[in-house]
Amino acid sequence: MPLVNQRAAILVRSRRIQKWQRDPEGMRLRILEAAKQEFATHGLAGARVDRIAAKAGANKRMLYYHVGNKEELYLTVLEGAYEKIRAEERTLDLEHLNPPRAIERLIEFTWNYFLRNPEFLALLNTENLAKARHLKYSTKVKTMHSPFVEMIRTVVRRGVAGGDFVVEVDPVQLYISIAALCFFYLSNSATLSVIFARDLLTEDARDERLDHMVALVLAALTGKPFTSFAKKKARKLPVAAEQPA
How many other CB atoms are there within 10 angstroms of residue 208's CB atom? Predict the structure, then answer.
């Protein structure tokens, strides 16, 4: 390498180190954001530390210093993804809404959060393929879910006590059902769109899905007909699309 190029490379490295030293927390956040995108796109096995470091404007030494090795970085990203959704859920103020509206708001939030954060769904897919091998070692994720479950439990109990709901369902089962209604639709939208010959990700289709989920869950909790909550008229499928794939 010519001397001029060597000096230029040294200068670039020196500036990066100075930037890292001036703003270590900023560097850590950039590494985590780059890692989130890398893991969401390529999974744990396909992710490359070199690409993460390059996207963050760092180098491997900085990355290992701030977060750790590849698996430690992956777990930190996973914990951060759960922390982000739980933090946003706490702002929903469900405790001060009437119970049916609180559940409707939870469904709306979950649906729109999944739409806005496809990398979250990708990370969940990656960790489920690994049988939660990394998540098992996280004490942080387990503790952050307890207040969330209690928040849902409180809403359900208020609903039963006030006569809005006919049954006090398990809050964990309720949330899993809500998340599943959202997650399956989005994670399988490509194949389902082909099978049923319609684009399931158009704006109208997404609105129709949200309306369906809200009506379905509230009908189950209140014992009222599905049509009491459906805002849109159900679409009639073409005969050919109704046949099993």
Answer: 18
* % helix, strand, coil for the chain, step of 5: 80, 0, 20
Give me 162's structure tokens.
């006030």
Q: Global pTM?
A: 0.83
Angstrom distance (rounded) from CA 226 to CA 112: 22
**What is the spatial distance between Cα 118 and Cα 123, in angstroms, rounded to a whole number?**
9
Backbone angles phi, psi at 50, to 5 degrees: -60, -45
36-75 as b/e: b if 16+ CB within 10 A: bbbbbeebbeebebeebbeebebbeebbbebbeebeebbb
Q: What is the pLDDT of residue 126?
A: 94
Contacts of 243 (CB under 8 A, 6+ apart): none
The token pair at 165 is 């709901």
Whether 176 and 108 have beta carbons less than 8 Å apart is answered as: no
How far, in Å, CA of 17 to CA of 24, rounded?
10
The rounded Cα 164 to chain-centroid distance in angstroms is 29
Sign of the dihedral defined by the CA atoms of residues 236, 240, 244, 245, in that order: negative
Q: Which pair of tokens denotes residue 241?
A: 């699309």
pLDDT single digits (tens) 39-96: 999 999 999 999 999 999 888 888 888 788 999 999 999 999 999 999 999 899 898 9
Residue 185: exposed, middle, or buried by beta-carbon count in 10 A (0-12, 13-18, 19+)? buried
Query: Could you read off the pLDDT of 102-140 as tens digits, one per residue?
Result: 999 999 999 999 999 999 999 999 999 999 999 999 988
